[in-house]
Amino acid sequence: MRPTLYHFPLSGPSRGAYLAAKAAGVDVDLQIVDLFKKEQYSEEFIKINPQHTVPTLIDGDFSIWDGHAIAGYLATVYAKDANLYPKDPKRKALVDQRLYFDCGTLYPCIRQICYPILYMGEDQIYDEYKLPLEEALGFLDVFLEGNEFVAGKHLTIADCSLVASVSSIVAVGWNISAYSNVVNWISRCALAIPDYEEVNQKGANMYGKAVRSKLAPGQL
């Protein structure tokens, strides 16, 4: 039986887990949970995940949520490419650090900007929210200096999570031209991860359109 991934295409963290599944060669049964329709609060879904978040993975009698944890699980259990989530302690620690950077630094900066626009009626991006995102993008650019991917020369699950985040804010209209390492890395990820356009870019574009439709003129 295939693992089941509960997924919302507009969600960066959810797309990150789906990209990791593709990179690991896992054929998942995709079940869409529409956050705009509040389907995550259905009684059926809360029984699966009481935190009612996507992505959520069911693999046999095992369930787990959080895109980064799902990515690590799928790579550990299914991936034939040992580089995707290395077992060597130092290499694995570097991948983990990049994952924690995404969930603890970069993605929260994006969410701080976009969540109030999508769900709380805001139509502006405030300067105090812009600076932390620019700083986070600058850190990512440094991580990529001299590297093809965020943890070295090989694609890892950290790339899957981070490129889903960055592509989301780029689709909103954020200018990342100052971060040439990041720009080039996105192109490498698009080539390295199977079905990247369908799995990630299509959802990122939908996310960007949803945010832009609620922004006041001249915000980007």
Commentary on this structure:
This protein is of the alpha+beta class and 220 residues long. The chain folds into two domains: 4-78, Glutaredoxin; 89-212, Glutathione S-transferase Yfyf (Class Pi), Chain A, domain 2 (Up-down Bundle). 57% of the residues lie in helices and 7% in strands. The protein contains eight helices and four strands; from the N terminus they run βαβαββαααααα. Strands 2-1-3-4 form a four-stranded mixed β-sheet, covered by helices on one side.
Summarize the structure.
By secondary structure, this protein is α+β, with helices and mostly antiparallel strands. The protein is built from 8 helices and 4 strands. A 4-stranded mixed sheet has the order 2-1-3-4, covered by helices on one side.
For the structure shown, list the relevant keywords:
single chain, 220 residues, alpha+beta, Glutaredoxin, Glutathione S-transferase Yfyf (Class Pi), Chain A, domain 2, 2 domains, four-stranded mixed sheet, 8 helices, 4 strands, 57% helix, globular
Blueprint (SSEs and pairs):
Blueprint lengths: L3 E4 L4 H13 L4 E4 L10 H6 L7 E4 L2 E4 L1 H12 L10 H31 L7 H17 L13 H16 L7 H13 L3 H17 L8
Parallel strand pairs: 1-2
Antiparallel strand pairs: 1-3, 3-4
Question: What is the name of the CATH topology of the largest domain?
Answer: Glutathione S-transferase Yfyf (Class Pi), Chain A, domain 2
Q: From the alpha-carbon coordinates, what is the Rg to the nearest angstrom? A: 17 Å
Count of DSSP helices? 8
Determine the strand fraction and express it as a percent band.
Answer: 5-15%
Query: Quick one: CATH class of the largest domain?
Result: Mainly Alpha
What's the arrangement of strands in the largest beta sheet? 2-1-3-4
| Count of beta strands | 4
Q: Low-confidence segments, ≥5 residues, pLDDT <50?
A: none
Give a quick account of the main beta sheet: strands, pairing sense, barrel closure: 4 strands, mixed
What string gives the helices and strands in order? EHEHEEHHHHHH
The 3D shape can be described as: globular
Q: List the domain count as a whole number.
A: 2
The helix content is 55-70%
Q: What is the overall pLDDT average?
A: 97
What is the correct CATH architecture of the largest domain? Up-down Bundle
What structural class do you assign from the helix and strand content? alpha+beta
Distance N to C terminus: 46 Å
